[in-house]
Amino acid sequence: MKRLLIGTNLKMYKGIAETIAYLSELITLTSALKNDLELFVIPSYTSLDRSHQITCDSHIRLGAQNMYPALEGQFTGEISPRMLKEVGVSIIEIGHSERRHVLGENDQFLNKKVLTAVEQNFTALLCVGETAEQKSFGISDEILKIQLAIGLKDIKPEQLNQVWIAYEPVWAIGVGGVPADPDYVELRHQTIQNKIREMFGPIQIPVLYGGSVNPSNAEGLLSRRFVDGLFVGRAAWEAKKFTKLINQILPIWKGKNEHE
Ligand code: PGA
Question: To test the ligand 1 pocket, which listed residue (42, 128, 173) has its Cβ within 8 A of the most ligand atoms?
Fold first, then answer.
């Protein structure tokens, strides 16, 4: 049985004490489900070291929200793969919409990060998604294909098992975001899988959906074909609520995998 891939990015929320309290509770609450889950949490940099100490013997994998594509150098304010390895990180989130649209990161730069992350034996979690304006022009699929063509360029076939994709439409993310319709999401996920197949042949990379996932839409989203997991923001930031959400959707996941 394929495990449910689900995780959360804590963005610029929760200091060290809050993160540790959150993770401790989440480890306890989800421990009975661990054989069904591939669960990951992506806290702030300053919490990573302590987070590693409490997650290293648990079923929770730790991610970093960003990484500079060089082992060391004159890059003030940046963080290197070597430093992230030192604090037990195994997943690197790359190109979240806030990095793309608030911090101005482009596809070429994100490609360097993806290549560095996989070379350094991390799982690269590449986020893609169109803006509201791009959607209004009807070019969502074109945007996704460009983001994948550039973002995954030069990945070696043997490194593809270290790549996850998160489809996160920019207009669906965060406070003020509009939750995406499952029909719409299914089509975009299909576009993503088709593009991956065109680039690399018949392989399957997990594609997660993210953007205002909450208890009222999670089942509908996860039940769709091509939706291989969920990347949750606000609805996951309290351990009890996150566990409740996971318990709510696990039967959907199991049912879907039985039929595939
Ligand atoms: P949200 O965040 O669930 O709070 O919309 C999702 C994300 O930014 O990944």
Answer: 173
